[in-house]
């Protein structure tokens, strides 16, 4: 976190540094939808793993038993609450301050 980064305030007036979602690991995601449901913004969308594989040369990394995978649709809509990471059973998301 840097002095020039995005810093919010809690209702009590304390500084709060949002941790914005940076990436989602498609190799560990099981497509459970928990992050999609909990996210208060329009950051995620469920995608067909087959469609994702067509855009990725490294097919061996994916578990093809899971037909659906969560992807980041609009990272710029993230408010950095980290709710997605709290509910993800597979630790798929990474976050960073801006
Ligand atoms: S940090 Fe919050 S707003 Fe951002 S993607 Fe996760 S749940 Fe959505
Ligand atoms: S909560 Fe985790 S495992 Fe479930 S869809 Fe989201 S990223 Fe994938």
Describe this structure in words.
This protein has one domain: Alpha-Beta Plaits. 16% of the residues lie in helices and 23% in strands. The chain contains 3 helices and 6 strands, in the order E-E-E-H-E-H-E-H-E. A hairpin with a 5-residue loop joins strand 1 and strand 2. The mean pLDDT is 90. The structure holds iron/sulfur cluster (2 copies). The site of one iron/sulfur cluster has 14 residues, from helix 1. Keywords: 4Fe-4S, Electron transport, Iron, Iron-sulfur, Metal-binding, Nitrogen fixation, Repeat, Transport.
Write out key terms for the chains shown.
98 residues, single chain, 3 helices, Alpha-Beta Plaits, 16% helix, two-stranded antiparallel ribbon, binds iron/sulfur cluster, alpha+beta
Count of discrete alpha- or pi-helical segments spanning 4 or more residues: 3
Neighbour order of strands in the largest sheet: 1-2
CATH class label: Alpha Beta
What would the principal axes of the Cα set say about the shape? elongated
Bound molecules: iron/sulfur cluster
Helix content: 10-25%
Unreliably modeled segments: none
What gyration radius follows from the Cα positions, in whole Å? 15 Å
Q: Kindly state the number of beta strands.
A: 6
Overall mean pLDDT stands at 90
Largest sheet entry:
2 strands, antiparallel
CATH topology: Alpha-Beta Plaits
Distance between the termini: 7 Å
Q: How many domains?
A: 1
Structural class: alpha+beta
Strand residue content: 15-25%
Along the chain, the helix and strand elements come as: EEEHEHEHE
């Amino acid at each position: 976190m840097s002095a020039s980064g995005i810093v919010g305030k809690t209702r009590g007036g304390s500084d709060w540094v949002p941790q914005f979602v940076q990436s989602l690991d498609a190799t560990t995601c099981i497509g459970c939808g928990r992050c999609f449901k909990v996210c208060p913004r329009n950051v995620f969308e469920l995608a067909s793993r087959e469609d994702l594989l067509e855009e990725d040369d490294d097919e061996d990394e994916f578990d093809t038993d899971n037909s659906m995978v969560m992807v980041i649709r609009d990272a710029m809509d993230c408010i950095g609450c980290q709710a997605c990471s709290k509910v993800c059973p597979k630790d798929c998301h990474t976050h960073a301050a801006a």
